[in-house]
Amino acid sequence: MEDEKKEKIALFRYGVISELVGAAHLAYGDAEALIRQLAGRRWDIPHSPRTLISASTIRRWVRLYERGGRDWRALIPMRRSDEGKCRVVDQETVLSLVRLKKANPGMTVRQLILRMEELDLMLPEYRLSQSTAYRLLKAEGLTARHPLDKTDRRRYEAEGPNELWQSDVLHGPSVLVKGKSRKVYLIVFLDDHSRLIPHGEFYTSEGIDCYLDALRQALLKRGLPRKLYVDNGAAFRSHHLEKVCASLGISKYHAQPYTPQGKGKVERFFRTVRQQFLAGFCGKTLDDLNQAFDCWLDDEYHRRKHSSTGEPPLERFSRNLELVRRPPGDLEDHFRKVARRRVAKDRVVSLDCRQYEAPATLIGEHVILLYHEHDPDHVEVLCHDKSHGLLRPLDKHVNADVGREKSQNQDAPAPAPKSGRLPFGK
Known about the structure:
Layout: H1 3-22, H2 28-39, H3 55-67, H4 91-103, H5 109-118, H6 130-139, E1 165-177, E2 180-191, E3 199-203, H7 208-222, E4 227-230, H8 239-248, E5 251-254, H9 264-277, H10 286-301, H11 313-318, H12 331-334, E6 337-342, E7 348-351, E8 354-357, E9 366-372, E10 375-383, E11 386-390, E12 392-393, H13 396-401
Parallel strand pairs: 1-4, 4-5
Antiparallel strand pairs: 1-2, 2-3, 6-9, 7-8, 8-12, 9-10, 10-11
Helix pairs in contact: 1-3
């Protein structure tokens, strides 16, 4: 490994443990709590596809730092004696193994490994042995024999297009974004009936803002689904998403925890993306990735006969277009964020470090603001469920000269007349 890469990794490691080694005194209980917190975060690890760091690794980095005289260079990675051999399993693979075992308690270790390979839940550079899998399951208390899972499961397929969309997020590769290497995430919507992809796009985050942007584009392209089937992640539990779906008449359902069978179609699509698209992608930037993905969807995936339906997804989706609900003309308004404010006595309302001027009739009232972050000049104000139009950005000079209504206190002194002199001194 080149010296520059080694130094970058060492500095990253120091950044992870800096809170632990930089404190003047940290009690054992507090240190352990902080280690668990750090181990629960997702990290953009330099030169690594992993995103999680185990608690034991963090403790080892602290020991290296202390033994090296509290010098960050002690964290520079050294060449391993077993380099080139399969020696570790990444944390995401461990979590996938545990979830799969909890969902299928009757599966043997060998069956679990084969199932993980089918679902493509292991990174190509790692190979999970039966002994390692058994050791990991034993540590979680999941090695006891259980009766076979006899849950009555049935195959399901929606009867028509846009009756049901499945949606999930795939952790993608690292590409250049504004000159910097960033990990990206593929947000996808899949029509259950036809297997068509209404929209799929790589983003630098899997948060709610990116997810809503992808949903908006999917609705514009293919109309409104009647049901949306999603995972249990934070973005899928967002109040904002709940409100968007409710306002558009879309029923949102969540997959049962630890039951990957319910998301089999979108998981199978992700496997296809890894094997048939990402494996051959040669670009470098996020724009290259998304352009290539769009071409692959339109030219190959949508026009190729699907193994489950026996028809190309685009052809199967287009056969019953009369069932598709068109998006409303004011679709953008359904995605606006909501903020609650109180109008100040000078008619000013603050929103995201910007100030706006409200109508005089709203002074002292609690109002609701509807807005898009990317369009700060269009902020609608509602009071008592009635719209009062758009707020105007505050102009302090104009605001100061606007005539005010007379105060109810008749004894209040009249304002001093304007002049070129200061109201005090000589």
